Amino acid sequence: MNSVKEKAYAKINLYLDVTKKRDDGFHEIETVMHTVSLADEITVSAECVRSGGQVRLSVGGADFLPTDGRNLAVRAAQTFLARLGTSANVNIKLKKNIPVAAGLAGGSSDAAAVLRAMNRIFSRPFGEKVMLSMAAELGSDVPYCLIGKTALCTGRGEIMTRLNDLDGVCFVIVKVNAHVSTPVAYTALDGLYGDFKAPHGHAGSLDGLLESLKSGKLAVGEMYNVFESAVFPLVPESEKAKTRLLDLGADGAMMSGSGPTVFGVFSDEKTATAARAALEKEGYGAFLALSV
Ligand code: ATP
After folding, report:
1. CA-CA distance, 260 to 278, in Å (whole number)?
2. CATH number for the domain including 281?
3. Does ligand 1 have an atom closer than 6 angstroms to the CB of 76?
4. Is 209 exposed, middle or buried (0-12, 13-18, 19+ CB in 10 A)?
5. From the CB of 228, is ligand 1 less than 6 Å away?
6. Are 258 and 129 contained in the same domain?
7. Residue 65 near ligand 1, beta carbon < 6 Å
C-alpha cells in the first residue's frame, strides 16, 4: 500500500475585513492570509479496489473530532476518488497540533493536505486547476491552503492573488481557552454591521499592508481584523491575550480569522521565545511559529 506524509500548515490573517453580505447570505471578504509553521501531520495510504472501498480516519491530539464524512480530511479523500473515478481503500492518520475551531483553518488545511497526498499517491493525475476546483468544493479556505504562503483572498476567500514572502518576522500564536465557531462569529458580526452597506471606519489599511508586503516587510500598524469588534466582547480573554502579547514586546498583535486565537508579530526571535514561555506560564496555549 502506497503511503505518503504531508504537513497541514495553519494560516493566520494579517488583514481581514467583510466588504459585503450577499443576498444568498454569504459574506464577501478581503483578507491577507499567511502560512505559518504550526502544522498538523498527515499520513495517507491507499489501495485500489474493484468497487466499493472505504476512507478510514484516525485522529490523535484532539478529542471530539468526527472521523466520518463530517471530517474535512475524509471528505477530501472522497472528493478526490470521485473526481478520479476510482474505488480505493484509504487510510488517513491525522495528528492534530493546530487548535480546533480557533481561526487557524486547521480543518481546511487538513483537507488541502489530503488532496496533495492523494495526488502524489496516484502519480499526479490532476494539475493545479482541477486541484483548486476540488478544494473550492470542500470549503472557501481550502484553495488558499492548497497553495499556502502569503496571498490576498477575496470573494468568499477563494479568489487568490499571490503576494511576496515575508522576511525576518516570527509569530507567537495564543490559543485562549474558548471556542468560537465561524457561524457564531459571523452572527455576532451581523449584529454589529447589519448588511455591511455603511462604511465601518477602522485602523489599518489593506493598501498600506500590501505596499509593505511588496518589499517583504509587514507594516504591523496596517493589520486589521473586523472580527475583533464582534468576538472580543464574547471572549474577553482573547483581548487580554492580545494586550499581553504587546506587553511582552510584540511589534503588533491581532486576532486570526474568526478567532478567538490571537497572534503577536516579533522581529526578534529571542523576545518571541521569552513571550511564548511567559504566556504558557500564565495558562495560555502558546506556540512559536515562523513563516513557511
Ligand atoms: P477557519 O479559520 O477556516 O474558519 P477554524 O480554524 O476556525 O477554521 P477548524 O479548526 O477548521 O476551524 O474547525 C472548524 C470545525 O470544523 C470544527 O468544529 C470541526 O468539527 C470541523 N472539522 C472537520 N474536519 C476537521 C479537521 N480535520 N480538523 C479540525 N476541525 C475539523
Report:
1. 19
2. 3.30.70.890
3. no
4. buried
5. no
6. no
7. yes
Closest ligand 1 atom to the C-alpha of 10?
A: 6
Q: Is the CB of 141 under 6 A from ligand 1?
A: yes
CA atoms within a 13 Å half-sphere pointing along the CA-CB vector of 39 = 17
| Domain co-membership, 52 together with 87 | yes
Q: Are residues 61 and 176 in the same domain?
A: no
What Å distances lie between residue 76 and 106, 133, 281, CA to CA? 14, 12, 38
Quote the pLDDT of residue 22: 86
Co-location of 274 and 175 in the same domain: yes
Domain, as residue range, for 52? 2-162
Q: Which residues are annotated as catalytic? A: 11, 141
Same domain, residue pair 140 and 193: no
**What separation in Å is there between the alpha carbon of 175 and the centre of ligand 1?**
14
Same domain flag for 22 and 128: yes
Regions of the chain where pLDDT drops below 50: none
pTM for this model (two decimals): 0.95
Question: What pLDDT was estimated at residue 1?
Answer: 65
Last residue of a domain, one of 100, 135, 162: 162
130 and 273: one domain? no
Q: What is the pLDDT of residue 26?
A: 85
Burial 242-260 (b: 16+ CB within 10 A, else e): bebbeebbbbbbbbbbbbb
Q: Residue 146: what pLDDT?
A: 96
Q: Based on the structure, what is the number of domains in the chain?
A: 2
- Shared domain for 6 and 145, answered yes or no, is yes
193 CA from centroid of ligand 1 (Å):
25
Q: Report CA(236)–ligand 1 centroid distance (Å).
A: 22
| pLDDT attached to residue 199 | 73
Look at residue 122 in the predicted model and tell me its pLDDT.
96
Identity of the amino acid at 170: C
Pocket flag, ligand 1, residue 100 (CB < 6 Å): yes
pLDDT of residue 204: 83
Distance from Cα 99 to the centre of ligand 1, integer Å: 9
Ligand 1: which residue has its CA nearest to atom 14?
101
